[in-house]
Amino acid sequence: MTKLGSNLKDIRVAAKLSVRQAGKKIKINYNQYHRYELGLNNPNVEMISKIAKGFGLSPREELELFFAAEKLPPAIIKYLIGNVGECKILLHKVGVILK
Question: Residue 75 burial (CB < 10 Å; 0-12/13-18/19+)?
Fold first, then answer.
């Protein structure tokens, strides 16, 4: 299981949902969602965002999913720059040095 897969499973379990229920909640095939959890498939940036929104994650939690997937799209970088105070700890996690 990948770091992202582990995070996705933790989110689902915290929401007290089965894999099937999680797939339905975020409007994707539950088998596909399960493959993401197991690390067999890697969701793209749009899918990570869809999953985060489907679970009602905060922007910070959504960023943590992007970090776990090691994917930072330009829109996220722009967000980070605009919200440095809120995201400083997350930026530190990926080795960005703030001056």
Answer: exposed
Task: Enumerate domains of the chain plus CATH numbers.
Answer: 3-93 (1.10.260.40)
Q: How many angstroms separate the CA atoms of 51 and 33, rounded? A: 9
pTM of the model: 0.69
Instruction: Using alpha carbons, list the distances in angstroms from residue 30 to 8, 19, 21, 60.
Output: 13, 6, 8, 25
* Mean pLDDT of the chain, nearest integer: 81
Between the alpha carbon of residue 18 and those of residues 15, 26, 75, 91, 92, the distances in Å are: 9, 12, 31, 32, 33
